[in-house]
Predict the structure.
Amino acid sequence: MTTITYIEHDGTEHVVEAENDSSVMRGAVDNGIPGIDADCGGECSCATCHVIVTSNWMEVVGRPNDTEESMLDLNPEREPNSRLSCQIVVSDALDGLIVNLPEFQM
């Protein structure tokens, strides 16, 4: 299990334990985190699981692939450290990960 903190736009924090080999999106959905709708079920085709990864975690999380990039390009609140949480695989290396949820998803 890996601890992930999801921070809503208003500052409300949700600390959850996520299953390794699942996704950061699945950790949010399984724990009822508001703002992660995951309309496509994790298929990288809707961008309703957009998160903003804190900058100190970007090297560990990595950059989006081309498919994810094209979905993020449609997003009005995209930041340089934006990712789709369905594309981030949970592992021990992500223990303590902090992601912020954009305002428009709330």
Summary: DSSP finds three helices and five strands in the chain. Residues 2-105 form a domain with the Ubiquitin-like (UB roll) fold (CATH 3.10.20.30). The chain has a mean pLDDT of 94.
